[in-house]
From TrEMBL:
Pyruvate binds at residue 217. Gene3D superfamilies: Aldolase class I. This is Dihydrodipicolinate synthase-like protein. It comes from Ramlibacter tataouinensis (strain ATCC BAA-407 / DSM 14655 / LMG 21543 / TTB310). GO terms for molecular function: 4-hydroxy-tetrahydrodipicolinate synthase activity.
Amino acid sequence: MHRFDTSAQGVYLITVTPFTDAGALDLASTDRMVDFCIERGVTGLTILGIMGEATKLTAEEAKAFTRQVIQRTAGRVPIVVGVSSPGFAAMGELTRAVMDLGASGVMVAPPSTVRTDDQIAGYFDMVNETLGPVPWCLQDHPVATGVQMSPAVILRILKNSPHCVMLKHEDWPGLAKLGAIRAAGDKGEVRRVSILTGNGGGLFLPEELSRGADGAMTGFAWPEMMVDVVAAHARGDVERAHDLFDAYLPLARYEQQAGVGLAVRKHLLHRRGAISSPFIRKPGPKLSAQDLADIERLVRRQDRRLRELG
């Protein structure tokens, strides 16, 4: 099993959950999706996130999907599993189950019920009690959770959480926040943890890397975009990183539309052969004929620009 610790870097791709056209969990397509992602160079996989329709799965389906991903991965990359829950019994049960299956760690976001710094910090004190020695990622995603975590409260959580090894930074705008947290680690005010970014499918990825992020933890139907941008930036070729990012940006932006974004991503992954069906469980969006025309235009333009870049 791959270690999941504070040295994590690269691209941990947030995966979708494949279903059949009839809405059943598609484990055969899950194998295809895992291979598709790993072949494109991702460092790790993160499953059962918000874009993974985790809330639409039964507990048994969540375990079955996790088991399939881990078996297919066969130790090639680490697997992080989202276990966020308003109740600690459910969080603890799912954590124990996925770690027994071979997951490398888990990810937790705060529930919408916590508001003040003390409430947020107190909640994560209970997360620590629930997870014990399991390495975990703190997900800061206020657009989805409605919970605003200041740099001060994140640093407070990190100081109180010896097994929190990563921050998934998804605040938007959040460059100054990311820089402040990284600077605190560099100054020794708090232990240094991995920071992977998830803003809108990587919509600010080059800038986030320049502010000290170690990579990305988000989703996009072209995971090679994030892999190549992170690699170019890591070797010091910042202009190349920006050029590559710019080529993908129009389609990445289109994929991040509120409401319809998951349908766009699943359509594109189906179009690329990564999953057998673009089915989304209810409640979920559907693409119009004009949406599909937009997507085809953007794909053509992206292909042309990538050829120009070589």
